[in-house]
Amino acid sequence: MTKYPMTVQGARALEEELAHLTKVVRPKLSQDIGTARELGDLKENAEYHAAREQQGMVEARIRDIEGRLQNSVVIDVTTIEHTGKVIFGSTVEIANVETDESVTYQIVGEDEADVKQGKLSVSSPIARALIGKLEGDAVGVKTPSGLVEYEIVEVRHI
């Protein structure tokens, strides 16, 4: 069985989404289906079919979230001793060696990844290159435009 690494914030976000889907969306869809049934012939009732299709998607998402939470390994990086090593959940500032441009990323689980928010999936090429390295190390990352070299400026556990 696959285990899903997840930060505390990622697990909390999934739990909140699950609660919203089960306590708000699911009851509303049941109500919409009941209302659409009252409109008559179900064969040609677009509202009924749309509500049933939406219900199927919501139920699939609920099962997916429940499965991920059951098989998750929640890692609270703030409880792990800071050694300067890049680990899952740590926030890493890296600088492009050529351009001296720096960027900060947190290494998170796949469900949490959002590059615009500075959250990199642990399975991304940059994160894979960074994991296990120390502050001050140089890291080469293969990109479509070639090898890009970064220096690890700082590793934080926040």
UniProtKB/TrEMBL annotation:
Residues 5-74 form the Transcription elongation factor GreA/GreB N-terminal domain. Residues 83-156 form the Transcription elongation factor GreA/GreB C-terminal domain. It comes from the Bacteria. One of its GO terms (molecular function) is translation elongation factor activity. Keywords: DNA-binding, Elongation factor, Protein biosynthesis, Transcription, Transcription regulation. SUPFAM superfamilies: FKBP-like (SSF54534), GreA transcript cleavage protein, N-terminal domain (SSF46557). Belongs to the GreA/GreB family. Necessary for efficient RNA polymerase transcription elongation past template-encoded arresting sites. The arresting sites in DNA have the property of trapping a certain fraction of elongating RNA polymerases that pass through, resulting in locked ternary complexes. Cleavage of the nascent transcript by cleavage factors such as GreA or GreB allows the resumption of elongation from the new 3'terminus. GreA releases sequences of 2 to 3 nucleotides. NCBIfam families: greA, PRK00226.1-2, PRK00226.1-4, PRK00226.1-5. This is Transcription elongation factor GreA. It comes from Pseudomonas kuykendallii. The gene is greA.
